[in-house]
Amino acid sequence: MERFSVGYRIQGDEISALERARDICLEQTVEFPPDLVPYGFIQDVVMGQIARIRADRPDSCRVTVSYDLDSTAFELPQLLNILFGNISMKPGIRVENLNLPDSLLSRFKGPRFGINGLRLRLGIKERPLLFTALKPMGLNSRELAGLAYKLARGGIDLIKDDHGLTNQKYAPYAERVARCAEAVARANQETGQSCRYLPNITAPADEIGQRALQARSLGAGGIIVAPGLTGFDSMRLLAENDGIDLPVFAHPAFLGSYVISPASGISHFALFGQIMRLAGADGVIYPNYGGRFSFSQDQCISIVEGCTMEMGPFKEAFPCPGGGMNMENIPQMLEVYGRDVILLVGGGLYRGGNDLEANCRYFRSLVE
Amino acid sequence: MERFSVGYRIQGDEISALERARDICLEQTVEFPPDLVPYGFIQDVVMGQIARIRADRPDSCRVTVSYDLDSTAFELPQLLNILFGNISMKPGIRVENLNLPDSLLSRFKGPRFGINGLRLRLGIKERPLLFTALKPMGLNSRELAGLAYKLARGGIDLIKDDHGLTNQKYAPYAERVARCAEAVARANQETGQSCRYLPNITAPADEIGQRALQARSLGAGGIIVAPGLTGFDSMRLLAENDGIDLPVFAHPAFLGSYVISPASGISHFALFGQIMRLAGADGVIYPNYGGRFSFSQDQCISIVEGCTMEMGPFKEAFPCPGGGMNMENIPQMLEVYGRDVILLVGGGLYRGGNDLEANCRYFRSLVE
Asked: ipTM, 2 decimals?
């Protein structure tokens, strides 16, 4: 009976944390009064088990709970349910990390391309990749395509839809994707580069698959999706679909509540690293430290760790820090992140002069 | 240009809340440096607008922001994205309520049955409904069906799979659903009642629809799904599917992080009331005050309000408080909730004697 385990941080001293850990063992599995849990298989296997408890901080403990692998049914939603479903409603419990055996990981495909695969496809061996977004929302498809052309001409590697662009009447999906993909292809012909356009397919549940296929047939070079809005398993399905066969970039919209409280929720490492890779992300977009959002430098580094640490047969995911970044931030980001990073600069590219193409070339010069 | 609006609670005094509200207007729409937002349509329509700010508490303000209706593309994921996508990553902002015009609501179907429809189908005019779960996880299909039979015989109205039951090898989905539905039908024939069995279809994205159809063909009387695990729009799709045509009950697993911080996230009212109805829930399961979880009585009452207040053309959703409830809690719950409630008691039914059927009859006697 193979097991997997989850590391939790539980608020309180060792005695109260132990009590809460016992509660987690029940809550996340049998949800039954402890004295009534049937002996044998259910009590010995199905119920969670405390593997370790360590009172390593004055106000909280690190607890490892192990669970029956078969109880996940090898389904991602049920895996997420076991590790945090009901206890998400109990304060003072934070998922720190997952320990998943290869026998579980091998039931998922993880990132299709990963860092190396994406580098290979783009023909960029060593330098950090440049990422930007088509914005602002409200522009029409022609205007967005015009921007895409300039950005590609200027040497950006990956151009995504802003994550708010879906199928608005001012820039309908199929029209926008066709025009932007065409504009980027045209720029590539002129420059000899291999910039890719990534439409946003965060869409109604019955349209996601179709939009992804449409993206492919219209010449997109990848897709972005916000799993907080669509569900993680919808993203996994896109990533594992051989008919789509495009790099998948995960956007963090609507996921902030999981990480925003230091004492509850899920760690940046587990959510934006381990879980994103389980769900097939080739690139993980997250708000960089020092920008408009609240992530600290340590939290950002833990995301990189979660994206790149060994994880069974899985490829590495590319960390894509962004969110309020400007040209001035780039040198320091390069110091912190090294070369295996995709630098996402959106609005910041419009600063420093009216010539967008020139601004992109300057951005590019910072990483070469 | 029609607009909808969102009420936020923003931490801070009026001056800082105003600044943060201005940031919300940008962050949730154009994500662009404020001085560079194009004049005209984008600045006047697409950008969020502060409709009202009220410094009603010493440490926080109530701010209403209005947004362009067309920017939702009338899609649920994009509506959720606009109201809380990126700002979920900024602490100190909580969605309190949504003000959605009928022109938006009419693009969704809301609950298919609602409180009245469910009462009509079950033939229960006035009394509260009785709800329980098949548990513990780890029992096989035959054992679960045996429990279902006794629970139905004892007078329970709705019997759901525990939300951790998916497609484990110890109780595979199709086998479990067939056996449990048969057991409940047999009990109904004997008692003349109309108990319904509700399988859990929280499943991989490519299997949810199929499991729901299978549930219907195997004789299930409804379905439960955890939208925190599948995405809200997957639930909406099930609820709106005429081929499924079953009451949908929403389970709160994995959603706790949105409500657990008083200063950030989404209010109980908006998440478990308004958003659940947008996503088609006929019944909303949530942890009752005083049980194993952390919701207060006021928060629970606000959920009832969100489930039943006027909301355009939408039907009301049934509040289903549960989670660690025992027979002793019932009288007080009836006082608080009145008759339009579904009382969910799980493990508590196994207390007070070995005769499960007798325990159910006692539960039933408390509401008649």
From this structure: 0.98
